[in-house]
Each structure stands twice: as C-alpha cells, then as structure tokens.
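Need residues for this backbone.
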C-alpha cells in the first residue's frame, strides 16, 4: 500500500468519524488528478456501520427511498462521484437529500465529489466542503516507489516530487514518461520535465476555449512572477478587456488579483497554448506595463522576442541593489538572461548569479543544476570559484559536510583573496559540523596547516556552527535586496575577520583573545538589519555566552529574512533562536521556534538544518517527558546526521534520548547511553556539545550507583564552566560536585548551586537541583527540609511543563511521608485538561478547533501516527468518545478559565 493510499485512507477515516456528529454531509473537491474518486472508494471500503450505495445521476429519484430505508434499518453511506456533472434537476434532488440529512439527523452519511477547478454548482454551493490538498513529500515518495518499474535515484525522486507539486496524477504521469535509465539517474532528465505532453495527459481534456486570451494571459503573467495569481489590471489591459468583464470559470478575482482555481490548470493553459499565442500574450503584457524598463516587462519581452540584446538589460535589472524584486523573480530573469547570452564566460556568470538567487528563494536542487552550468570550461576561475563557494554552501545546508568543506577549499584556491577568506570560513563551518576541530582550525589558519589543539575539546560553545552565519550556513552569499556581484560573491569586511579571529581563539582556548573580536561582531550585527550580519552576531553571542543578545539577534535576523523574502535564511534564524532559548532554559519557546524552523527547512530543502531542528525538538520533548516524540525526532535527526556526517546533530540526538531515560527513572540506561559521548575515546561526541551532556551523565552515573565513572568528566566540565559561554554551567558544576561529594561537603555544594541558579533563568535546571538535593536530604532523614526542596522541585517542573520529572519529585515526597497536591484522577468539571501532557494539550486544542489529524501533524512537525497515538490517550484520559465531546470540554474549560 502506498503512502498516498495510506494518507488518503487515514483522512477518510477521520472524516467519517467526524461526520457521525457533524451533519453527515461533505462535498469533496480538488484540482484534476488529486484523487477525488479514489477518496470516495476509500470511504466505501472503510464504512463499517452499514450498507454503501453509489448513486448515479439517472438514479437520483432513488434518494428519498434510500433515506427512508436508512431511518428504518440503520446507518447508510451514499456516495456520489462527479456531482457537478449531473443535470440541474438531479442536482436539485441531491441538494434536497443533503438538506434533509443535515436538518433531521437521519443516520445517513452523504459524500459528494465535485471538480475544484471551476465553481461548484449553485445547488451544492452551501454544503460543507473538504478540499483535498497536495501530497506531502512523505506521501509522494512511496507512490513513486510502487509505480516505478525500476530503481529511482534519490535526486530524481526529489525532482519528481517538486515538479508534480503534490498532484498524484501528474506525479504518476511523470513516472510513466521516464525510462529506467532516467529514473536511475544514468541519463539526464528531459527539460522541461513537465511539458505540454505530460500536462495534456492529466488535464488537457478539461481546458475550455479561450477566445479572448484571458486565460493564457493570466497564466503567462503568473508564470513570470512565479506566484499563484496575477495583477488583474495588468492582465485586463493586456487583453483589452473591460474591468467588469465576466471571468471564465477557471479564474477567480480577489483584491485586484486574478487567480486560477487550480494551479495545474494554469500550467496546462500555458504549456498547451500554441507558441505564437504564448509569445503574443507575453508581448501584450510587456506593452501593457506602466514601467517598461522594470524587470517584469523586460522578462515578458524576452519571451515574446528572444533578442540577445535584452540579456544585458535583464541582468542589470535583476542585480539592481535599489530594487525590491524578490529572489525568485531575480532568478527567473537571470536564467533568461543566461539563455540569451552567446558569450560562454558571461553566461556562466549569469547562471552563477541565478543560482545565488535560487538559494535565497529556497530552491536547493534547482540551484545545484544552475551551478553545474556555471562550472563549464568556458567559465573563468573566479566564476568557477564562486560556483564552488555556493556549492559548498548548498552541501552545508543539505549534503555531506565533508564534501562541503572540500568545495569551500577548492573555492578558496580559485577566488581572489577577499572572497577566498569567505570560502575558508565556510570550510571551517563544515569542519565544525563534522566534529573535526583540527580541520576547523586548519581552515582558519593563514597557511591552512593543522595546528595543535591544547584545549579545543574542552573550550567550546553552544550547539551551533561557530562561524555559522557568515554567508554559508544557509547556502547564500548575500541576502535580500543586495545584488550579487558578477562572480556571485561579496567582499569580506572587518566583521568576518573578527568572527574568524574570535572563533580561532575559542578553539585554541585563548578566551582572553576571543572576547574583544566576538563582542565587536555582536555589536556590529545588532546595529543593522542585514540578516547575515545578524546571524553572525547571534553566533558570536552564543560563543560568548550572551544568550540575551543571541536571542535578540536571532529574532531580528528572522524578521529581516522575512522582510527580504529570503526563504533560505528563515530556518537558519529559527535554528539560532531555538538553540538560544534552550541555552536560556526556555525549552517551550525553543520547541515553538524549532517546529516552525523544521517546516521551513523541509520546505526549502535544507535537510541538515532540519536535522538540527529535530535535535532541538527531541531535547525539548525529553524535558516534557514525551518519550515517543523524543524517539521520533531523535531518529529523524540521526538519519540525516549519519548520512551527511553531522556529528553535532548526532550528539544532540543521543543526549536527548539519554535525558528521556533519566526523566523516566532509568538512570542506568541513561548512563550507558551517555558514557561514550562524554568520556574520552573514539566515540566521544561532538567537541562543542559533549560537555553540555556532562551534568546528565553525572546524575545518571550517581543515581545508578556508579559515581566513579563521572569523576574525570567533572574535571573537564570545570574547564567548560570557566569559559563563561554557558550561563547554566556554574550551577550545574556545583550540582555535579555535590552528587560526587562526601556527606560533609555535599550539603554546602547543593546550597551554593541553588544560589547560582538565582543568577540565571530557567525553571528546569533549578528544579533538577532541588530534586537531587531533596533526595539527598530524605536519605539522611532530614525529612522536613527534604519536603521543602522536593515540593519546590515539583512546582518548578510543573511550571516548565516537565510532568515525568514532576512525578519523580512527587514520588520522593510520598516516600518521605508527604502527600503532595495533585490534580484529581477523574473529574467531569473544569480543569480536566490539566491532566494532559503538554503535547496532548496542544493536540486537543488543534482538534477542538476543527483540525484533522493530518493538519495537526503538519502544524506540530510530527507524524500522523504520533497524533493518532496522543489523541487516543487524550480520549482515554478524559473519558471521551468523540471529537464533539472534546470540543465541548475545551469550550467549557475556556469559559471557566481552565488552563489549555
């Protein structure tokens, strides 16, 4: 069974469940090829409550009899496919049957399908609608595997998924089109991959006549901008149509924009038009523009009249620093300029500039194809170097990081000095991600020779690449409205030099030399709005342990990336924010940023960045006690980390799994998992991360009765705490020493640790210290003091949403003879939702708002299976039987002010 089938069946099952308490009628719609008929077949197979009847237009008169039968004998499912093709009297009968079902509550479910690329029939327009959305990549991949007759290369599979835009029929048409050699990657794919022949196979018979050219002109205008809609005034001027002219059924107008009801139909209209008609439409749009020298009119003119003389004008408009043109449109203009350019060297420069803008727009695979065209033999060395520079950036965000390092080093050999410095910073970034401090320092050294590492493995920073933000971490060289240089690179200023010097000093444990240059990087970035400089500022702040500045710089970088439409930078900015929040002890905020960052990273093809977000989510879930989420996100991070050599993300994922063991009361398992990560040896974790896990290991080893294993790593942790790069480290160090100390000194160490916690934010770490101190006091029969500490720990864990840890504190209280205040085990009044875990609360809230399980999974960046699991537990915990009861409970508790 394919992922597509599984997803549709899951969605169908959810719908049938909801319809039992929600009026019993739904109109299923979607664009051609979305699988409406298949959806109806799934519903028929899954309906177990009673008989299923498929009703045709010529049997519409049987509807009344079917409803009477259902009332007498039991539930019934009525299925009507392509109801929009019925004649008007039959549709009227169908509408009457739907009204009766909704008004009288007869035990009948009615599912109708109608085409989504034109307006619904008036008789059915008031019925509730379910629109089938596009397939997700996870749903499309198994569909390709099932339907392909041969092996499909990963790169080919990803391009098929991208080009199909989630349309199942188009995806299958593409698979049928390609030979085994092309599917396996042994032969190049045809260009364009989706052409008129493929689109005619899926949607050609649904295209209406277009006598006024309005459909084609709208499609041409949208194609130029890459958006889903077009300026209505421009299109109507180009067609010489009245502003109040009636629109074809395929189009809709809103707020001055024209839009196709179906993106597939827009592509088909443009691709299947005669070439002379397409050229005429583009020429009309160019002539109708108010500013003929703007980038869009030039682009339309180049498609209408392929004149090489237009290439320079297009390239100039696309690289104008004063322009606010988004990266996707700049990319289109530069590609077209390259196509019109006869000179090989200049064509390579324009392909390189187009690749840079493609990365800014979030198109990784497309950028790599453009870079291949910029590396030809006719390209001069600076252009080839620029191509390697960008290729390294792409691989750093979405590929093996060791390959990224080699691309950066090759770029450094080909580029002039100012750009070569940026390439060496990129090589250092890649070495950092791979967990190779010697290579990192080698890249930063003037001669790039391997230096010694006296304290590099102990003196490290936050879980993030040190030089990260320069221009490489997210795969871009410039951002926003800044125009690319002809070589695709930009000069390196003092900020980059300061960042390099500061990072090198940190790796060499020369913190006396690191502070000044890193502080200049922080301050310089915060004075402007350049996303790259802001991200450099965030990285430097994290190296300094200035979490407040890191959060501020990350937030500003995110806002700037969105302002400049730099899609590739958003997941990077969210990654910095997530890590900074974790370091500040705000794990729930970290989770919020990481969930959003994961969605944007997956959307822009940045799997390495996505792995870091998965690791953050696993760490956050390990605090909240969501074992299944820890496993899911840790495994997702590890899959990419192992394939791409991401030692940093791998270490974080293992740490999350171990902390989940510790929170669940399994210290021996936690110690076994963490031991190889933190103790010297070939399996030791990433040099910038392993000491962050030391406090967990010390606690696990001490709780498992093996404190001798932790003595050596505590001394290493002392060096880390002295670096000043981790606000929590001093209090954690005192806690670790208390765990290993003799009874006559442990008491004072615990109290000193609690005093140091007062200097930092975050309830979780303080609550852990209170819990361990309370356990220590109870075992020494100092029960009154123990109860005070344990109650503080329980309350602290509850405040930060760590229920399993709160249960540990409650168990210790009970063992000491206390009866802590708890939420009643069963209650039908206000406050029931307080019994749910944080993740269960989130899911309950989404479901109460009407979201399907699939929509909840997309919102929370988890699998639908995980949502199913949690929702079953929600129903069991609250004693509910349906989603409607959950909605009522949520509404009731909102009215009474209960916590959601």
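Answer:
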């Amino acid at each position: 069974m394919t992922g597509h089938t599984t997803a549709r069946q899951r969605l169908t099952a959810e719908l049938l469940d909801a319809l039992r308490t929600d009026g019993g009628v739904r109109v299923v719609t979607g664009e051609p090829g979305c699988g409406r008929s298949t959806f109806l077949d799934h519903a028929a197979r899954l309906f177990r409550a009673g008989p299923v009847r498929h009703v045709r237009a010529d049997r519409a008169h049987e509807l009344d009899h079917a409803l009477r039968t259902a009332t007498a004998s039991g539930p019934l499912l009525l299925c009507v496919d392509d109801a929009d093709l019925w004649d008007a009297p039959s549709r009227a009968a169908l509408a009457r049957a739907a009204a009766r079902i909704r008004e009288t509550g007869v035990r009948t479910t009615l599912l109708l399908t109608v085409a989504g690329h034109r307006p619904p029939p008036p008789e059915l327009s008031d019925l509730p609608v379910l629109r089938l959305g596009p397939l997700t990549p996870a749903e499309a991949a198994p569909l390709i595997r099932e339907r392909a007759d041969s092996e499909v290369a990963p790169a080919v599979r990803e391009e098929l998924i991208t080009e199909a835009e989630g349309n199942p029929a188009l995806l299958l048409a593409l698979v049928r089109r390609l030979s085994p050699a092309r599917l396996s990657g042994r032969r190049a794919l045809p260009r364009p991959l989706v052409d008129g022949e493929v689109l005619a196979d899926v949607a050609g018979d649904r295209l209406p006549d277009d006598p006024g050219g309005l459909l084609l002109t709208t499609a041409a205008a949208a194609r130029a901008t890459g958006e889903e809609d077009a300026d209505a005034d421009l299109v109507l001027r180009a067609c010489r149509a009245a502003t109040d002219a009636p629109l074809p059924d395929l189009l809709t107008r809103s707020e001055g924009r024209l839009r196709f009801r179906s993106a597939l139909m827009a592509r088909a209209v443009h691709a299947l038009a005669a070439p002379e008609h397409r050229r005429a439409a583009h020429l009309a749009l160019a002539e109708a523009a108010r500013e003929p020298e703007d980038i869009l009119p030039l682009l339309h003119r180049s498609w209408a009249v392929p004149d090489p003389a237009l290439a320079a004008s297009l390239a100039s408009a696309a690289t104008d620093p004063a322009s606010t043109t988004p990266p996707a449109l700049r990319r289109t203009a530069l590609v077209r300029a390259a196509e019109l350019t006869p000179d090989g060297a200049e064509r390579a420069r324009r392909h390189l500039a187009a690749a840079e803008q493609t990365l800014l727009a979030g198109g990784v695979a497309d950028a790599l194809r453009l870079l291949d065209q910029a590396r030809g033999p006719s390209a001069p060395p600076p252009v080839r170097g620029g191509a390697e520079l960008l290729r390294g950036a792409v691989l750093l965000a979405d590929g093996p990081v060791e390959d990224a390092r080699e691309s950066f080093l090759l770029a450094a050999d080909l580029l002039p000095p100012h750009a070569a410095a940026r390439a060496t910073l990129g090589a250092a970034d890649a070495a950092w991600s791979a967990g190779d401090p010697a290579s990192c320092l080698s890249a930063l050294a003037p001669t790039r020779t391997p230096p010694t590492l006296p304290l590099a493995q102990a003196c490290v920073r936050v879980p993030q690449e040190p030089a990260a933000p320069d221009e490489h971490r997210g795969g871009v060289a410039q951002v926003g409205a800044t125009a690319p240089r002809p070589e695709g690179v930009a000069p390196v200023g003092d900020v980059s030099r300061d960042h390099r010097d500061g990072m090198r000093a940190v790796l060499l444990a020369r913190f006396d030399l690191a502070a000044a240059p890193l502080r200049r990087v922080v301050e310089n970035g915060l004075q402007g709005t350049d996303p790259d400089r802001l991200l450099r500022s965030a990285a430097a702040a994290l190296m300094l342990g200035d979490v407040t500045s890191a959060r501020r710089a990350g937030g500003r970088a995110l806002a700037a990336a969105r302002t400049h439409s730099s899609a590739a930078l958003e997941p990077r900015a969210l990654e910095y924010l997530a890590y900074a929040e974790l370091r500040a002890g705000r794990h729930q905020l970290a989770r919020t940023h990481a969930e959003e960052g994961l969605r944007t990273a997956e959307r822009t093809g940045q799997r390495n960045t996505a792995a870091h977000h998965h690791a953050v989510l696993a760490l956050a879930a390990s605090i909240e006690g969501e074992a299944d989420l820890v496993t899911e996100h840790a495994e997702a991070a590890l899959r990419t980390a192992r394939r791409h050599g991401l030692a940093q993300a791998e270490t974080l994922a293992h740490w999350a799994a171990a902390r989940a063991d510790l929170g669940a009361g399994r210290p021996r398992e936690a110690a076994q998992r963490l031991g190889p990560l933190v103790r010297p040896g070939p399996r030791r974790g990433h040099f910038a991360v392993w000491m962050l896990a030391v406090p967990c290991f010390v606690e696990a080893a001490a709780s498992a009765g093996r404190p001798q294993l932790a003595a050596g790593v505590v001394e290493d942790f002392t060096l880390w705490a002295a670096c000043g790069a981790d606000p929590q480290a001093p209090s954690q160090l005192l806690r670790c020493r208390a765990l290993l100390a003799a009874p006559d000194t442990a008491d004072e160490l615990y109290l000193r640790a609690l005093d140091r916690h007062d200097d930092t934010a975050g309830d979780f770490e303080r609550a852990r210290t209170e819990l361990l101190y309370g356990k220590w006091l109870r075992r020494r029969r100092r029960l009154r003091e123990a109860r005070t500490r344990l109650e503080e720990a329980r309350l602290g864990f509850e405040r930060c949403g760590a229920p399993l840890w709160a249960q540990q504190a409650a168990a210790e209280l009970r063992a000491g003879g206390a009866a802590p205040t708890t939420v009643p085990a069963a209650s039908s009044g206000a406050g029931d939702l307080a019994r749910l875990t944080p993740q269960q609360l989130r899911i309950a809230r989404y479901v109460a708002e009407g979201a399907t399980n699939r929509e909840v999974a997309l919102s929370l960046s988890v699998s639908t299976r995980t949502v199913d699991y949690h929702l079953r537990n929600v129903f069991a915990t609250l004693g509910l039987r349906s989603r409607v009861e959950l909605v009522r409970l949520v509404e009731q508790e909102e009215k009474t002010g209960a916590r959601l």
